[in-house]
Amino acid sequence: MPGVGLLFGPMLIGVYLNTILYGVLVVQTFIYYQTYKNDKPWIRYLILYLFILETLNTGFDIGMMYEPLIVRYATPRATIVAPIMLSADPIATVMISTPVQLFIAWRINIITKSRLTAGIVSFFSICAFIGGIATTISVTLIPEYARLHEFDGAVITWLASSAAADIVITSSLVISLYRRKTGVRATDDVINRIIRLSVQTGMITAISAAADVIIFVVVPNTTLNFVWDFALSKLYTNSLLSTLNARAGWNNLTGSDQHNVLFGDDHNNTMIRTMKSSERSKSSNPQKIVTGVYELEPHRSSAQSSSALDSSAKNDGDLEHGVNITRIVHQFEDPLPTNKKDDAD
Which long-range contacts (CB under 8 A, 24 or more apart) does 152-156 make? Predict the structure, then answer.
């Protein structure tokens, strides 16, 4: 086995990253509950469930480092037997990552209408869940550091399946959004921003899971993989919350009208602001008003989308809708041409 520095150093760094990301998670959770009070109850309960598990996971990780560095300091057991709380990490991670991936699989089915893609994501997610449970059981039965590689199969199943699910999620969202480009610059700019968000939030979890399993296999008899492993659950929850909050996010708090086409609008807040801004624009320029709203309703015609603008202000955003981006422009024609006005005067 490696020296104390290489044994506990990566684990300590992983716990630091975990606690730092927990702070980010607290802020994102606060923003979500303050901003999206009209989301469906089951989605709000999902976020609560994830937050509770993440809190427990952070406590487990801190206790895991407290045991060898304080309770068993300077004893042979500290460098031979893994901390008791280490076995809680795999099961806590998959209890967080699996609901997140299944939630996104549901969204993929709604957005792309592809049950095959959603089924593939669900399959890999469930495989990862089984692998995580098997890893927890294995660490409980064989807690010695020197024997951790006796259950490589469980660890590889867990992390490789999780990374595969994340790659399929990111690829399918990017392809689906890219096909929705219309050639209109304003619309395409919005889609490009959503594509970047999808890549940033999806690939970071895939890269972390892949790095975790690769280092575990390639660099045996060390704990270097724990640098990525202990922060993995926080990356999943923060990625989901950042995507949910991106429907309005900080822009909702500052009065801007930016939306995330992956999860729909917050009509109660955004549409009211848009109607007020439209009234101001009408008084200053009676000929043309651009609302600045990108409609995210199921595929409707332009006339239907325009007539739904007022009714949308009265209804909550529905996450179960598909995605259709329509730039709404209200045109107000002057009833009299300019030359006739002059003649009338």
Answer: 152/216, 152/217, 155/131, 155/213, 155/216, 156/131, 156/213, 156/216, 156/217
pLDDT mean across residues, the chain: 77
Mean pLDDT confidence for 309-333: 46
Whole-number percent of the chain with pLDDT over 90: 46
Q: Which CATH architecture has domain 4-251?
A: Up-down Bundle (1.20)
Indicate if the pLDDT at residue 340 is higher than 90: no
Q: Are 92 and 52 in contact (CB under 8 A)?
A: no
- Strand, helix or coil for residue 143: coil
Q: How far apart are CA 195 and CA 217, in angstroms?
A: 32
How far apart, in whole angstroms, are the C-alpha atoms of residue 135 and residue 318? 38
Q: What is the DSSP letter of 292?
A: E
What is the C-alpha separation between 164 and 198, in angstroms, rounded?
Answer: 15
CATH 1.20.1070 domain position(s) in the chain: 4-251
Number of Cα atoms under 13 Å in the Cβ half of residue 210: 11
